Amino acid sequence: LLIVAMGAWRASRERSYEAAAAAERQHELYERMGELVRIDPATGGHKLLADGLGGSSSLEVTSDAVWLGGPDGVAKLDPRTGQELGRTSVEQVRESRTTSIAVGEDAVWFVGESSTRLWRIHPRSVLVVDSDPVGASPSAVAVDEDGAVWVASSELTSLARLKSSNDVESVEVGATSLGLVSGFGRIWTSPGTAAG
Length: 196
What we know:
Elements: H1 2-32, E1 36-39, E2 46-50, E3 58-61, E4 66-70, E5 73-77, E6 84-88, E7 99-103, E8 108-112, E9 117-121, E10 128-133, E11 138-143, E12 149-153, E13 158-164, E14 167-172, E15 175-183, E16 186-194
Antiparallel strand pairs: 1-2, 3-4, 4-5, 5-6, 7-8, 8-9, 9-10, 11-12, 12-13, 13-14, 15-16
């Protein structure tokens, strides 16, 4: 019985060490929130590009900008230096835990799950130009090859598709969607909860 107790104590102690290590990693993660890190996939090396960025929850990268979205709105950064090139606040998403950002040919598109709107942001001025209603709890946004903007919802079992301003179409998919991406001539969505 003593061996079993020692084994249980050792396993318990190891779990305590693992829990402490996990808590320490989580603490380090929280300390690093608000940082933008660039990773070289060939070497695995990483470099801090910018910090003090707040709680950004979405990211999009183009050849000339890094776009960050979060409850504070949208920020545009230089991809080489990390210098802020512009910022706009979107008050209606302040309560959002989840945001998503996508860059199209002539606009940056932004959603936050606490709003029912899709925000169009001018890519040079970084100012809100317009918004369109897309339904409850938008969770993700993507731009397809034809320039149509798609929005997923964590509450609705359909996607919203915006072909042009004020032309929003609903496309039923049978489940809520948490993620959304455009690629290979298709729109891809991660499943949430099935209709029922």
